[in-house]
User: What shape does this take?
Amino acid sequence: MRAAAVGTDGRLEIVDKPEPEPGPDEVVVAVDRCGICGSDLHLRDSGLLPAGAVLGHEFGGRVVVGASDGSGPAVGTLVSVLPARRCGTCEACTSGRSNLCPLQLPTSIGLGWRSGGYAERVAVPSTSCHPVPTHTTPAQAALAEPYAVALHAFARSRVALDPDLAVAVIGAGSVGLMCVAALARAGVTRMAVAEPRPYRATTARLMGAVTVARAGDVARALGRAPDVVFEATGAAEAPGQAVALAAIGGQVVLLGVGAPGGQVPMPAFAWVVKEVDVVPSIAYTDAEFSDAVAAVAAGAADRIVASTHHRGLANAEQAFEDLRRPDGPVKVLLDPTA
Assistant: This one.
């Protein structure tokens, strides 16, 4: 089968891979669409991935081989895939924090351990497959994963308890826009987004946010310093900017994933004197992923779906380059069927 894999020069190239061999409690999914995440860009550039690695953890598709032990969805079912195996029995899983399950890292799909969705077919745990409503499009099925990331960040924030708080989002890439979508769906109206790229800013504005080019202009746009700042870029300097922006006694939620091994400079004086709470947010719980599938199928991310570009696997490397351009697309979904 065809896959877009990391080559010896670090660039993505089309290769032939063996058909996936599922374990007894695994299914094979024919990928309809797979999103390119900002963390994919970081990983590809990190030099940590071996040649032949297949990225892609934001994907949906149809089950084409069922699990031999009878678990999971039947052949023909359209699913969104939670890209890891979680044990369900560890302290994290039983306490409702399955996003922190220690089993998931070595079983992660499309992050360097197991081959991911930049391929025609993928073997995944049957428990990772979340059937989607019949009217769900392939794009919606693939975008459930980044929407789940936003749902978890929202749940970690104070605004989940008080939607009347003033909120800022730094960065209107796909994760930042998913955050805007989740906030809007929850009834948050006092929301500003800092994004210098006009195309992305326009999308955020259409979703209900006030947009500014620079993070320093957020307070003016809101009429006050934000109570909660969501940092969604992963840039090394952005957490420090978020702390500087936040109101006295405010909160910063970090959901942008930086480069592996990167360091984050923070304004120590402002951070301590203002008593800003900094909250990390990683991935999502199983329940949040299920909620994301339902929300995206109901149209929660349709503005992002409408601005998404679709490319064939052969254009994967070019898509990576396009996403880095100032005028590049908000989101790219790879289509292994093209």
The first strand starts at residue 2 and ends at 6. The domain at 2-131+307-335 is CATH 3.90.180.10 (Quinone Oxidoreductase; Chain A, domain 1). The chain has two domains: 2-131+307-335, 149-280.
